[in-house]
Design goal:
The structure holds two protein chains of two kinds. Helices cover 32% and strands 30% of the residues of chain A. Chain A is an alpha/beta fold. Classes of the chains: A alpha/beta, B alpha+beta.
Chain lengths: 229, 388
């Protein structure tokens, strides 16, 4: 197996809701190789999104070690995690989560505001990312002027624009029709195969999972089995 | 600067709400500009005594307290005083209290000598005024306002002075002429003026005889005005009627001030306006942030730190308040000539508007901080849970 980009060791995650403590992940260990495209599947409440949050540095484990792109995330502060996310990870959500008042190009530029790039460079990079996902002709359109598939492409461009090592996608095709979903999945596959992006994708859709090179199944906070494509 | 497009776009996310919030803040700052300008005028009277060609001497403690007539002679003896005249507040209205008339009993010779070249009165009308004991010279604008004509018998009600003959407050005058002012900037200040004879007033009033309201002086050398004012006040120091001598231009301010602490009243109104505004704008900002929680969570997901998110919300609040303040203050600047007309004789300075910008920043920080803190503390996972 090649070098792991994601390494989890004995990770537990508990949420406290009122007086109740809910165990979401229990003693989870996992390695994901650099350049891999992994689909994370399982029933609702199995802990997929929680695992994705931990891998993406949005949340911290209750115990255990998480190393992503060579960085121990469980040891970083909130500020450290924000800085790490800006440099190493791109996010794609089911509902795109674009800023409704900004054009596609401005949405894609958002992660670049955290860099020292000039306005011209930010614009050029955003247009390059939009070109890569095949939607440069819609650069000046606002999200409400785009179809679901187009909006998700803009979201993928936003995730890519800072050239992250890892893409984490939470149900990226969950809100799309079959045709648009396939287009988005082909795009993710292309980014993985041609641009070497490591991708972790949560999905309920077996057809979407077929685009990944590996599939992981979760249930009740634990990994069940792994299958190669 | 690189965040400006994001802040600007966020500000206009809900255009209608932003416009209405903006309008309410604009109106508050328009009010601020108007009231602050008036307050500033009271706090900063004219540039000082030095250079004033006319001085005004009144009772040190209140303009409502009179001075003995004998003070006029003593003031005339002060070196540098070229002319002195005396006037008393008559407190008049025509038919209805809302028809305020600035009626002044004057000593004809000394008054027109002191205000030489300031009034336009035809020679025959001036002669008629001198010859008629009950005569009145009326500002031509006032004549026009009430449709009076030369020869009209003019009844004026005094709010102060009863007549010796029957105890009545109603005085009657004969309009014998009109006057206009040469200086256009003084036109509004003199628009309600009626001049009549001090002799008639002195003989007719039932009390206060031998007293005058205030004394006006023309100085021979304006450069010496401060010294002359000091000498006049020194004359009456430690007497039962101590005096305060000031530039005649500041009279309007002094006169209005006698009714109470104008500055306090103005500041109280402003305080109430901004207190209400705090709730209004603060609520709008809170609502705006509440609606954008998923978007703010996305920014944090992309790597925006807590401080940056705090800064973005504060910048939005600052932008809203500063735009509104600039618009409101610009409108109040444009309204200065109208206010000046309303406050006859009070000089207004645009300098008074400058603190408005500081108030805008303070307002922005007060209303922006609670939602900005909320945005800063936002938990990404919880905020995204409803919309991923």
């Amino acid at each position: 197996m090649s070098e792991a980009i994601v390494r989890l060791r004995n990770v537990d995650k508990r949420y406290v809701r009122g007086k109740q403590s809910v165990e979401v992940l229990q003693g989870l260990s996992l390695d994901i190789a650099k350049g891999d495209f992994v689909a994370l599947m399982g029933p609702s409440g199995s802990g997929k999104t929680t695992l994705l949050n931990l891998i993406g540095g949005l949340d911290k484990p209750s115990s255990g070690e998480i190393t992503v792109a060579g960085q121990r995330l469980d040891q970083l502060s909130s500020g450290g995690l924000a800085h790490w996310r800006a440099n190493h990870v791109g996010f794609v959500f089911q509902f795109y989560n674009l800023m409704p008042m900004l054009s596609a190009q401005r949405n894609v530029e958002l992660p670049l505001l955290l860099t020292h790039l000039s306005a011209a460079q930010r614009k050029a990079n955003a247009l390059a990312a939009l070109t890569l996902v095949g939607i440069s002709d819609r650069a000046r359109h606002k999200p409400n002027e785009l179809s679901g598939g187009q909006a998700q492409r803009v979201a993928i461009a936003r995730a890519l624009v800072a050239d992250p090592t890892l893409l984490v996608c939470d149900e990226p095709t969950g809100d799309l029709d079959r045709k648009s979903a396939d287009d988005v999945l082909h795009l993710l596959q292309m980014l993985n195969r041609e641009h070497g992006k490591s991708i972790v994708m949560v999905t309920h859709d077996p057809k979407a999972a077929e685009f990944a090179s590996h599939r992981l199944y979760m249930d009740k906070g634990a990994l069940l089995e792994a299958a190669a494509a | 600067m690189k965040y400006f497009p994001l802040v600007w776009a966020t500000l206009w996310r809900k255009k209608t709400r932003t416009i209405f919030t903006l309008l309410s803040v604009v109106i508050a700052f328009l009010l601020f500009g108007v009231l602050e300008t008036v307050d500033y005028a009271f706090a900063h009277p004219s540039s000082g005594v030095t250079g004033a060609d006319k001085l005004l001497t009144m009772n040190k403690y209140s303009i409502t307290l009179s001075l003995p007539f004998s003070d006029v002679q003593e003031i005339r003896s002060v070196p540098g005083v070229a002319e002195a005249t005396w006037i008393t507040w008559f407190g008049a209205y025509y038919q209805d209290p809302k028809n305020f008339v600035f009626a002044l009993p004057i000593d004809t010779d000394t008054y027109f000598n002191l205000h030489k070249d300031e009034f336009v009165v035809t020679a025959p009308q001036m002669q008629a005024f001198r010859n008629t004991r009950s005569g009145a010279l009326v500002n031509s604008a006032l004549m026009q306002k009430f449709g009076w004509k030369i020869g009209t018998r003019l009844p004026l009600h005094s709010t102060i002075w009863t007549q010796k003959s029957d105890g009545s407050l109603d005085w009657k005058f004969d309009i014998v002429g009109t006057f206009a002012v040469k200086d256009a900037t003084q036109a509004s200040a003199q628009a309600s003026t009626v001049l009549f004879h001090h002799e008639m007033f002195e003989e007719g009033r039932s009390f206060g005889k031998g007293t005058v309201g205030w004394i006006e002086e023309r100085v021979s050398d304006p450069a010496q005005a401060a010294e002359i004012a000091r000498r006049i006040d020194a004359l009456f120091a430690n007497s039962p009627n101590e005096t305060k001598t000031q530039p005649a231009n500041d009279f309007a301010l002094t006169f209005i001030k006698q009714f109470g602490d104008v500055g306090f009243v103005l500041r109280a109104i402003l305080g109430a306006v901004f207190f209400t505004l705090l709730f209004l704008t603060g609520n709008t900002m809170m609502q705006s942030v509440r609606e954008r929680i998923p978007e703010l969570a996305v920014l944090k997901t992309l790597g925006f730190g807590a401080g940056q998110v705090l800064g973005l919300v504060l910048a939005e609040s600052l932008l809203l308040c500063l735009i509104a303040a600039l618009l409101g203050l610009a409108l109040s600047y444009a309204a200065l000539p109208i206010i000046k007309q309303g406050l006859q004789g009070v000089e207004l300075s645009p300098l008074a508007l400058v603190p408005g910008l500081g108030v805008a920043v303070l307002l922005a920080l007060i209303v922006g901080t609670p939602p900005a803190m909320r945005a800063m503390r936002l938990n990404i996972v919880d905020a995204l849970a409803d919309k991923r």
